[in-house]
Amino acid sequence: MTTGFDAQRSNWVRSDSKISRESLSKPGFALVWKMKIGGAPLTPPALMDFYIGYRGFRTLGFFGAASGRVVAVDMDLGRQEWEKSWPAGASVGGPACPGGVTSAVARPTTTAYPPLNARGFGRGTPAKSGVGEPFAGAVTWRAPRPATPPPPSKPKPRAAPEDNPYAPRVQYAMALSADGKLHSMWVSNGNEADSPAQFLPPNANASGLVVFDNTAYVTTANNCGGVDNGLWALDLGTKRVSHWKTAKNIAGAAAGPDGTIYAAAGGEIVALSPKKLETVGIYKTDGAKFTSSPVVFRFKGRNLLAVTAGDGRLHLVDTAAMGQALDAGGSLSGEPGALASWQDRAGTRWILAAASGAIVAWKVIEKDGAPKLQPGWTARGLVAAAPPVVVNDVVFTVAGANAVLYALDSATGKELWNSGATMASRSMSGVAAGGARVYVSTQDGSQYAFGFPTEH
Predict the structure, then answer these.
(1) How much is the average pLDDT of 431-456?
(2) Fewest CB atoms within 10 Å of the CB: 69, 93, 299, 325?
């Protein structure tokens, strides 16, 4: 739905029908399709696995590109559906100020923790049948006898209708263009029914676009285009923009289940209220600057967050008491980026980080009544590893000058599978996953889809 899979930036696909430790240990997982989209670097796709249109059930992906384009792709067939283009902006080409589509495409989501075992819509009870009275036919065909009308009564308030996944509704893919406007596009054809809303000043370097509770949020960094660093909020109903400013460079932001935003800037994590972005809490380090977006998760009744710092430590903080860390363990090298967090089948909470040449895992345990970090495993030899993504009990990352996709056992870090020499260019945007597929975009504008082949 958004960068990092959900508003908490967990990078965790909780339920997948085909990808598992067992299935990756057998032959079958391979390249399904490759297509050239162009306009590199591509943002990871926002995915939609359950779109019903006039051509039936579809799986769609929505990519943004630095050239100022949004491209929708049929992710089952590797076929372009539609494309939108806007002026690329004045600062295209520099890694610090890329211009173009200024943030990954997002779809509106929720701040509630996604369920551990998601399941599709369908019948919740067994089908029933019956036999009618003699010579009356089946019970499904017999006309019911008219009932005695009840006495007149006061009309009752109409109950809210149950949510019907098959009911017609407008669904959007949302993207920020270089002129700072937020575009809301119909997923079916890219049409914009309303004029785009002015969100940011032009040529900002925005990232982490997320939309929930009818409000869009995004961070800005590097003072690109003279735009102040910080977090921005756009009320989609009133078009009112709120801005929390900081003189420090912002590493990222994540939302808690109540909508509170936790922004990592310099050596501080600032908790901000939804919509208005008023400061409601602060956590400070002893000077080390944060290098990742926080990841927010539930642990034994508490809402915790974890974030990496440039001194190699992983900080664990209770969002209800942000004065000091619960723990701060150090075993990272380089400048670690985005984190992943997941819970295994046994109920153990894990946190993953990409460090210099390795993926490092910790467990979150309870010790003396408080959450603590316990070293887990380290998978070495992954040069320039991208932030990890977890699908069920498999960790995916991409590494190397010519991108190689790796699948690791989430419990041990042992390699289960790799893509070998399938890709011929470096990956710039990491890994995305959903619908039994794993997606990698490369520097030459190509998109690769890996999974188990199916008939179409």
Answers:
(1) 88
(2) 93
